[in-house]
Every structure is written in C-alpha cells, then in structure tokens.
Amino acid sequence: MSGHSKWATTKRRKGAQDAKRGAIFTKIANIITIAAREKGGDLDTNFTLRMAIDKAKMANMPKENIERAIKRGTGELAGAEIVEYIYEGVGPANSQFVVRALSDNKNRTAAETRHAFSKYGGALSSVMWNFEQKGVIRVSREELENKKVNDEELELEMIDLGVDDIKVEEEGATIFTSFGDLQKIKKYFDDKGIITESAEVEYIAKDEIEASEADVEKIQKFIDTLEESDDIADYYTNISNV
User: Fold this and answer.
1) Where residue 52 sits, what CATH number does that domain have?
2) Is residue 89 one of the residues assigned to a domain?
3) What is the pTM of this model?
4) Which of 82, 94, 117, 122 is the most exposed place for a label (fewest CB within 10 A)?
5) Any idea what DSSP says for residue 130?
6) In this structure, are strands 131-140 and 172-177 parallel, antiparallel, or unpaired?
7) What is the pLDDT of residues 101-156, one digit of tens each?
8) Residue 72: in which H helix or E strand, if any?
9) Percent helix, percent strand, percent coil in the chain, to nearest 5
C-alpha cells in the first residue's frame, strides 16, 4: 500500500493560489466549518479542526476568515448549512475516483459532479471497494532538509511508532497511518518543530494502476475540472502517476 502521490497536485495548487485565492479560501472555510460543527471550536479537543486550520495557514488564509468559518460551524454566525457529500465514479481511461464535496446545495453539487465525470467519458459508479480511509501526513523535502532529518532515520522512527507505510520521494515523505494513529504521528512532528505540508484523513486505493502518457493527459484534464469547482474539496484516485 502506497497511495498515489499528491506532490504534483500540491505544486499546482500553490501556483494557482494567487489566481484562485478566493475559491481556495472558500473550500478551506467549508472544511473548517464542518470540523467545528462536528466537534466544537476548541482546538485543544478538536484535532480535525486543528488540522483544517493548519491547512488554512499554509494557504495564507486571513485570521478573520478562519475565525468566521469556526463561528459558522459552532452556530455563532448565521449561514447556509454546509454538508459533506462523497461521490464515487469511473473517470477517463477507467480511472477510479472518490470525490469529497462540501456544499450548501446538494442538487447543484450532484449535477456538477455528474457532469464532470460524463464530460470526460466517465460516470458515477461504485468504486469504494478499492479504497480505505487512512491518515496521511506529508512533509516536504525542503522542510526535511531544513530540520536536518535523514530519510533512513525518519523511516526507522516511523516504523517504531507503528505507521502503516512511509513513502520517501524527491518531493518529500508521505506517511500512512491508521485512522486512530493520525493524531499521535502528527504530534511527533509538532513536538520536533517539523512543519507538515498536510495531515488529514484520505481515501487510499488498495490497488493502484499506472496510466499511459496519453491517458494521464486525459485524467489530468478531468482533475483540473474537479479542482475548478468551488464545491469539491478533494479527490482521491487509484492512478499512481498523476
């Protein structure tokens, strides 16, 4: 089990932040709102909220936006209710996708997601049998080098802590944990002052496939469409090379 690499996705998102900053803030605000609604606005007791706020800070989201999103979640501010929807489907070249949407309008989101799949020759379909939820933590190569973290030492430390898998790449390290161990592993990095690129629960494919160069181009166009939607917070795929 390794999980497809999202380092390329992270780079694209960072490059597009200036042009799409408002849309990115909307997506992150929705994540914060749902986290606060489910387990309250206290960062000490709500780990999911803390991770969402870390994501907001990585995107340079203004403090007032973060506070407003928390208050919407706890009911201190009025606003349309944000609901999480999970869609499964087959994309271009028989790729499998699990799509996480956060929206205040179920009909609009369902229609947009269905259209995105059909536009690229796919369709909504059951694929969850090939995915499982895992805690995923990413640490960039730059951060590892800044903190003088050796790859082999990191792998040994992670094995000692009982992680499921660790994938060390040119862009950085990706650590896979059980759902219940995510908070413990995140605390390990926090205690050492190592800044994580991301730390969240993701849907990881049990069996991955590598797409051809021509198919990767089609799949990438489909992914771009997903990322352009304000309602779609994230996506997960069984294609290892996108």
Assistant:
1) 1.10.10.200
2) yes
3) 0.87
4) 94
5) G
6) antiparallel
7) 999 999 999 999 999 999 999 999 999 999 999 999 999 999 999 999 999 999 99
8) helix 63-74
9) 50, 20, 25
Residue with tokens 């050492």: 192
Report d(CA 70, CA 50) in Å as an integer: 11
The answer to whether residue 145 is domain-embedded is yes
d(CA 204, CA 120): 23
Q: How far apart are CA 96 and CA 124, in angstroms?
A: 10
Could you tell me which of 54, 60, 62, 51 has the C-alpha nearest to residue 17? Answer: 60
Quote the pLDDT of residue 24: 87
What sign for the dihedral angle of Cα 92, 98, 100, 105? positive
Determine the structural domain holding residue 166 and report its residue range.
132-205
Q: Confirm whether 29 is domain-assigned.
A: yes
pLDDT tens-digit map of 136-145: 999 999 999 9
User: 226 CB contacts (<8 Å, ≥6 apart)?
Assistant: 97, 99, 116, 232, 235
Angle between helices 63-74 and 7-39 (to 10 degrees): 40
